[in-house]
Amino acid sequence: MEQSPSQSWISFVNSLGPNNYKKTVRVVSGNYLSASLYDLSFATGDVFTVTDMFPTKVQAILYENEEAIQTVNIPLNYKGEFQIFPDEHPYLSVAELYYSVQIGALGGEGTRFENKKSIYLEDKTVIDKGEILELVGLEEKDSTFLKFSLLKEDTSPFVLLPLTCNVELQECHDDQFYTLDMILQWKMLFGRKRFVKITKGHSLPCLQHFRGVAHLSPTYSFKVVCSGGTETIVASDLDIEVIEVSGKDWILNFTMTLNMIYRIPVNEFPIEVTVSKVSSEINTTSGFRNLEVGQCLTILKKKEIKKCIVTESAKQHFLVPSTYQGTIVKTPRSFPFAFDLFCSRTKEQGIRVLVRKAYKAEVPLLSSLEVGDELQVLTSRTVVLEQNARPQELEVVECVNVNTNQTINIPLYAEGQFLEILGESQVCTLAELLSQPHSVPCNIMVVKADPSVESDPLPGLKELRLEMEISDPCLIALRRDPSPVILALPIDRVKVSIEVTVHWYNKKESVQTYVFCHSNNVETLHGDQYAALQEKYFFSKPAPLPRCIQVKKQDSKPLPSILGLAWSRAGLRSPRATAELDSHC
């Protein structure tokens, strides 16, 4: 069996990165008893797999004039906003990025880097010095690659860089505002220090007037799966020695989850397994009702399958393969308030909308709207109003009134019942729509069902929102009984325990005999499954909340505050938004 030297658990977890923490270890010495917390004990010889890691505490070390002056604890649900400082040390290899930067949890922009020296790839691609690369994902072929979007003026081609590639990439400046939750989930660095600037909305006394720099230092706990499929949570300070195990020997006759099987190296596939336990909830998971205890499966390979998250009027949620062959047509979106426009705009392409409800501006710096006005949404900005002899800031959406060709400012609370203006309507497949630049998110209607989908639920639904395309990690499995069929099992949603019985070494036969024609199954998502995808991918790039402000005219009532309603209608996560509104107002 291949194995690494033994080390303390603390040393082991400190070596884990954001993309390589799902590892299996065997306890070689020590004993951990914590009955008051988790009723858990590890003994020599125990094997368990780390399946998740999450922060349990965050400390901020405050600096002024490059000197640490204070260390404070920040609650995990803290809603104050920060700006991040780019790491001043460049990354000298792609492997450094892999072990330091969070990949795959991004639903909006990835981290951007400036290339400090030319990169020459084997396929003759040259990435010139000074070009900007956006880290967008991870791909596993024969080895691991990081996927970048090469940002150019006219196009953004994708390039794959192997971990062995020597580079000099400098993190770019980021002018966005982030809550602590956002930073921890997709902007934290591992093995490097993440410095932030305290900006606005801070309620902690030690941060309200602090204008220096803070170093964020989180403490993590780990979810592990033990022999027999038992899941538990352990802290990072276990007093045990462990050894990382890999290869095929340890997995034989060992009860595992699909998530654990997915972490087996690609060269170990295919393998044969027996289903030993099936979760009761799998009976309501679309397309996977036929898995039964005692069933034998051959896991042929692991694969990330492109799928789209589709929502019907915020009531039903679906996961649709990007290969879906139904006929669709793009339909216009509705934006009740200017704040909806603010949340839905993109940097690459402004939204063009029609005003369907008039709005009367309260002060000269703002602009009125008439029914029938056409607007091209540009950006958002902050304007300063004089109210009661005091300057007050107000966030607005900046647009061009196409009718008058004038640039105007619309406050975020303005209700205009805006309707998106689309180009010429055309019917297409989902893949054809996704190939168009800046096509997601959008509204669609399925006008013709996919003939390969049994009881296709999408035709007939009037308002479908195409949220985003994701890469869904799946195990491609062959089930021979009662008749041969290929299954694509999503590891995060199919809850079964399996035992590995034997490795199937006739790999040539397995690849040639069975064609991986994945079913275009439309999967219905439960609320918790949809929430988990929201948490992982952030469907819309979270925008900083506007400040609630009272803008008054003489002898008039304060303007209504409808930002919470606008936030929820924009498709962002309403519980967090509601809490943030409460803290801002």
Please provide a written account of the structure.
It is built from eleven helices and 37 strands. By secondary structure, the protein is mainly beta. The radius of gyration is 26 Å and the shape is globular. Among the domains are: 1-83 and 183-246, no CATH class; 87-172, SH3 type barrels, CATH 2.30.30; 334-421 and 543-584, SH3 Domains (SH3 type barrels). Strands 21, 22, 23, 24, 25, 32, 33, 34, 35, 36 and 37 form an eleven-stranded antiparallel beta sheet that branches. Strands 1, 2, 5, 6, 7, 16, 17, 18, 19 and 20 form a ten-stranded antiparallel beta sheet that branches. A six-stranded antiparallel beta sheet has the order 8-15-9-12-13-14, covered by helices on one side. 13% of the residues lie in helices and 41% in strands. The N and C termini lie far apart (60 Å).
Chain-wise SSE layout:
Elements: E1 7-8, H1 9-14, E2 24-30, E3 32-33, E4 41-42, E5 47-64, E6 67-74, E7 81-84, E8 91-93, H2 94-100, E9 112-115, E10 119-120, E11 126-127, E12 132-140, E13 144-151, E14 158-162, E15 166-171, E16 178-179, H3 180-186, E17 194-198, H4 205-208, E18 213-226, E19 231-234, E20 240-244, E21 255-257, H5 258-262, E22 271-278, E23 296-312, E24 316-321, E25 327-331, E26 334-337, H6 338-344, E27 352-354, E28 374-387, E29 390-401, E30 406-411, E31 415-420, E32 427-428, H7 430-434, E33 442-448, E34 464-479, E35 485-490, E36 496-503, H8 507-513, E37 523-525, H9 527-537, H10 563-569, H11 574-584
Antiparallel strand pairs: 1-20, 2-5, 2-20, 3-4, 5-6, 5-18, 7-16, 7-17, 8-15, 9-12, 9-15, 10-11, 12-13, 13-14, 17-18, 18-19, 21-36, 22-23, 22-36, 23-24, 23-34, 24-37, 25-32, 25-33, 26-31, 27-28, 27-31, 28-29, 29-30, 33-34, 34-35
